[in-house]
Every structure is written in structure tokens, then in C-alpha cells.
């Protein structure tokens, strides 16, 4: 782990310790009920995915201000640094998890600074607090429901506000 990575992990841990907590089970069950209601309302998993992303986007546009105020972090200097901050500080701050960060081979970090920097990254959630009590029916899985799509929206909304 690089020194920057360790620093971001420490910031995330520190902010989590200072944060007022909401009961995790209440949060998880409420999110599950929201997804169930969206499925009933839209009866189309593609539309449910869009609504979850849209809700997340709206949350992200507001959460970024809270995040910056709590952490005191400055603008990231690279896309790779942005990915590190999202993984090690943002997810830790709000969900107390640290997703595994990886870069697809095509966009791997070059050793030569004159080469293009990565343009995409992958966050793998080993533990997903949103899905802790979720037991999706087979048709939801096969029908393409992205149960945690709200997280994609949060990231997009937050990044748009600081770009």
C-alpha cells in the first residue's frame, strides 16, 4: 500500500470514528423497502435501475459538500487519486466499508508520466451493507435489477459537483 493509500485509509477511519451513526439495520431495511416499492411502482427492472441511479445522483450532489467539510481534502491531482479517495475515504465515511480498487488492464497506471492516465476504475464491494438483508427473487436477478445502483448515482453526482 502506497503512502498516499495509507493516508487516505487513515483519513477515512478518522472521519468514521467522528461521525454520528444511524442504526445499520434500519438503514438497510429501509433501502430494501424502497427498492421493493420501486419494483411495484415501475414493474420494469430497467426503469427501477434508472430511478435508483437518479436518486443516488441527487444524494451525491448534496453529500459531496458534507464529505469535503468533514475531510478537509483538496482537489485530487489525478483520476487514480480520485479513485483512491472514493474507495478509501468516501465509502468509509458514509458506509464504513472500503471497496477493493482496481484498474482495468487497458487503463492500468502507466510508469511513464507522458502516457495516458487511467480513465476508468472498478470498485469491488466485498461487503455490501445495502444488500445485507436482501434476498432477491430469481426474476429480479435474471431481469437485470442492479440492487445497489444508487451507489453509482451517488458517485456520479458527487463527481459532477467537483469537476
Describe the protein:
Helix content is 60%, strand content 4%. Strands 1-2 form a two-stranded antiparallel ribbon. Helix 2 runs antiparallel to helix 3 and helix 3 crosses helix 6. It has helices at 3-18, 24-42, 45-71, 79-95, 138-142, 149-162, and strands at 100-102, 122-124. It is built from 6 helices and 2 strands. The chain has a single domain (3-15, 22-162), classed as Muramoyl-pentapeptide Carboxypeptidase, domain 2, CATH 3.30.1380. It is globular. The mean pLDDT is 89. The protein is mostly helical and 163 residues long. The two termini are 27 Å apart. Keywords: Endoplasmic reticulum, ER-Golgi transport, Golgi apparatus, Transport. This is Trafficking protein particle complex subunit BET3.
Write a concise synopsis of the structure shown.
The protein is mainly α and 163 residues long. It has helices at 3-18, 24-42, 45-71, 79-95, 138-142, 149-162; strands spanning 100-102, 122-124. It has a single domain (3-15, 22-162), classed as 2-Layer Sandwich (Muramoyl-pentapeptide Carboxypeptidase, domain 2).
List the helices and strands and how they pair.
Elements: H1 3-18, H2 24-42, H3 45-71, H4 79-95, E1 100-102, E2 122-124, H5 138-142, H6 149-162
Antiparallel strand pairs: 1-2
Helix pairs in contact: 1-4, 2-3, 3-6
Family: Belongs to the TRAPP small subunits family. BET3 subfamily.
InterPro entries: Bet3, NO_sig/Golgi_transp_ligand-bd, TRAPP_component
Keywords: Endoplasmic reticulum, ER-Golgi transport, Golgi apparatus, Transport
Amino acid at each position: 500500500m502506497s503512502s498516499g493509500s495509507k493516508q487516505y485509509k487513515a483519513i477515512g477511519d478518522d472521519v468514521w470514528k467522528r461521525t454520528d451513526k444511524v442504526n445499520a439495520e434500519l438503514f438497510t431495511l429501509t433501502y430494501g423497502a424502497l427498492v421493493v416499492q420501486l419494483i411495484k411502482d415501475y414493474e420494469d427492472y430497467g426503469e427501477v435501475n434508472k430511478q435508483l441511479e437518479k436518486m443516488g445522483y441527487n444524494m451525491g450532489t448534496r453529500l459531496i459538500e458534507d464529505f469535503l467539510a468533514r475531510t478537509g481534502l483538496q482537489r485530487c491531482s489525478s483520476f487514480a487519486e480520485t479513485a483512491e479517495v472514493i474507495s478509501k475515504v468516501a465509502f468509509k465515511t458514509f458506509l464504513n466499508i472500503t471497496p477493493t480498487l482496481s484498474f482495468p488492464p487497458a487503463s492500468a497506471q502507466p510508469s511513464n508520466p507522458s502516457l495516458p492516465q487511467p480513465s476508468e476504475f472498478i470498485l469491488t464491494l466485498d461487503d455490501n451493507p445495502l444488500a445485507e438483508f436482501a434476498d432477491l427473487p430469481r426474476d429480479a436477478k435474471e431481469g437485470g435489477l442492479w440492487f445497489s445502483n444508487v451507489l453509482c448515482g451517488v458517485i456520479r453526482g458527487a463527481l459532477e459537483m467537483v469537476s
